[in-house]
From TrEMBL:
Enzymatic class: lyase
Protein family (similarity comment): Belongs to the DeoC/FbaB aldolase family. DeoC type 1 subfamily.
SUPFAM superfamilies xref list: Aldolase
NCBIfam families: deoC
Family annotation (InterPro entries): Aldolase_TIM, DeoC, DeoC/FbaB/LacD_aldolase, DeoC_typeI
Upper lineage: Eukaryota, Metazoa, Spiralia, Gnathifera, Rotifera
PANTHER family assigned: DEOXYRIBOSE-PHOSPHATE ALDOLASE
The entry's keywords: Cytoplasm, Lyase, Schiff base
Pfam families: DeoC
GO molecular function, one term: deoxyribose-phosphate aldolase activity
Protein name: deoxyribose-phosphate aldolase
Amino acid sequence: MLTSAYIDHTLLKPEATLKQIDQLCAEATEHKFATVCIQPCHVKYAADKYSVRVCTVIGFPLGVTSTQTKVFECQQALSDGAQEIDMVINIGKVKDGNFEYVQNEIEQLAKLVHSSGENKLLKVIIETCLLNEVEKQKLCQIVGDAGADFIKTSTGFSTGGATLDDIKLLRQYSPKHVQVKASGGIRDSNFAKELIQAGATRLGTSSGVALMKDIPTTSNY
């Protein structure tokens, strides 16, 4: 069953204004969405002004900044009031087979997030559209071993978004304690329900209000 508690109400467009952030937070409050997911520059504004749970993105959208940079970004976001962190892995390191680098990076952010207070969560964006099946399966194990709370399909800014097959794969190969977040291209309630049935426990979408009203949209995220 699709409920508002599944939804990270998302606005990550670079041209987003404070007026739009206000609208996002008001909608999240009204519909009781799980979080608002916004760029780091808006975290303090939203956290100070609204009672909504704030999620932000780190190393977004490419994942290619250094580990030290991601750690700094994460620390700043937590200090500003973020309660959930969605980090992007370094996909090039995956392609190089350097899974030790990827796991170490996730571990550092997981420790930072979890040490900052209760109920703080780390989600790991693996950008499934750029990976093969073996890489996806390996990352399910790594995300679990590194201590993250969620594995997440997509940024919504690459060549593809969430698919049912990917959600099924991530749920099958991830440890039980790791939840699955679907994101990218979730535009109608039927697809959202199918993703939940396949194993997703969180949906990242800018179409949260439309999903609750069962109105199809054309948003990419």
